[in-house]
Design brief:
This protein has 65 residues and is mostly beta strands. The protein contains no helices and 3 strands. Bound molecules: zinc ion.
Length: 65
């Protein structure tokens, strides 16, 4: 089980249902965490005020590799 680093609330993340880049929010304190790794599960806190994702999103249906 993964706990919120801020308040230790159980974040209840199922690693089978998330992938790198997903953002999860803590129900208790409202902190948001970006998933930066799933094996092992690694979270990076999303700081408010950073909006670098705004015009940088990718179409997940496109295959461009
Ligand atoms: Zn929390």
């Amino acid at each position: 089980m993964t706990s919120c680093p801020e308040c230790e609330n159980n974040l209840d993340i199922d690693v089978d249902e998330v992938e790198e880049g997903d953002v999860v929010a803590c129900d208790e304190c409202g902190s948001e965490y970006e998933i930066v790794g799933v094996d092992p599960l690694e979270l990076s806190k999303v700081e408010e005020g950073i909006d670098e994702d705004e015009d940088d999103y990718k179409d997940e249906d496109e295959e461009e590799e």
